[in-house]
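# step 3/5: fold
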Amino acid sequence: MYQNILIPTDGSQLSAAAIEHGVRLAKHINAKITFLTVRSPFHSLTGEPEMVVDMPDDYRQFVHSYLTEETDKWLSDARKVAEASGVGCETVCAEHEHAYQGIIDTAHRQGCDLVLMASHGRRGMAGIILGSETVKVLTHSSVPVLVYR
């Protein structure tokens, strides 16, 4: 059966529900969990080239710290759920332009044999326009994916 389950989180309530489900599954099959959050690299967009050159390092550090605090909280909350159930886990924060690819890359790098992730279940035009990271993982991953809805 599965030995290392990757559970991505974006801090949403739906991700929290998937974490709860994933922890119960891991406990039942005696697997460990790798919790993951994928954040986009910081980019500065401006119309003035000299603003990019003159962007203070302290501002870049402020933005990086803010994003790190947020993702650290998501991963800490997930870790607490696993620890409360006696399930072993580790946490990973990855940076990638495309969240789905960050999920797939981490699954391979961490030796995960299952990805368990939430889906918002968008349909129709919303699904077409917004796309779905879950569908992209399903489409491109060679690791089995369990979708929680």
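# step 4/5: annotate
The helical segments are 13-29, 49-54, 57-84, 99-109, 124-130, 133-140.
# step 5/5: archive (pending)
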